[in-house]
Amino acid sequence: EVQLVQSGAEVKKPGESLKISCKGSGYSFTTYWIGWVRQMPGKGLEWMGIIYPGDSTTRYSPSFQGQVAMSADKSINTAYLLWSSLKASDTAMYYCARGSSPIKFDYWGQGTLVTVSS
Amino acid sequence: QSALTQPPSASGSPGQSVTISCTGTSSDVGGYKYVSWYQQHPGKAPKLMIYEVTKRPSGVPDRFSGSKSGNTASLTVSGLQAEDEADYYCCSYAGSNNFGVFGGGTKLTVL
Questions:
Q1: SS3 call for B68
Q2: Exposed, middle or buried, A71 (CB in 10 Å: 0-12/13-18/19+)?
Q3: How would you classify residue B49: left for phi > 0, otherwise alpha for psi between -120 and 50, otherwise beta?
């Protein structure tokens, strides 16, 4: 059974760093993209970017380029989304999803809620 | 990259059909055969309903269908059922500089 399990909710202060994770199981982790999608409170889905764990190739939306980083550790089937300096506007639910293409996300994680508040 | 344009809301009675539009440009929807549709119930992760404009993943009822004409893609839900009430998002490939873009979402209400 394909599963993506994300790390738990986070509460951080502005300026702090953060890394959230997404662990895949039940499929070949290195042969599918992992995409990241943001959903701000009460708002729609936003395509952030994708990473190919096989070779760590990344593609970012221009809106998120430089704001976040994506990485993957294929030895433990885990992808990461990283912030070096959080802002209050980063408060959102973040989903990871398995992609056989940049926009075909067929399995999703349960989401990680990130709250940034002073 | 601007979000694709969807109507904020749509509605229909049980058994009826409803179509949700998704309008982009020739740089995204109109330029590629890569449009997906996602269903999201409150508090849940999105679910893939349609990919590559018209294809349904295994397990998605054939009441859901997709199409595209020019810069506008559409999702049609036939034989509406109560459980179809959800938010629906389109997503298009937008080329090698932007890659992916979602629509703003449409709240489907089953009356």
A1: strand
A2: middle
A3: alpha
Between CA B109 and CA A68 the distance in angstroms is: 35
Distance of CA A63 to the CA centre of its chain: 15
Tens digits of per-residue pLDDT, B41-100? 999 999 999 999 999 999 999 999 999 999 999 999 999 999 999 999 999 999 988 889
For residue A25, count CB atoms less than 10 angstroms from its CB and return exposed for 0-12, middle for 13-18, buried for 19 or more.
exposed
Interface A–B counts its CB contacts (< 8 A) at 74
CA-nearest residue to A109 within chain B is: B45
CB contact under 8 A, B105 and A45: yes
Look up residue A103 and give its amino acid.
I
A12: distance to nearest CA of chain B, Å? 22
At residue B29, the 3 state secondary structure works out as helix
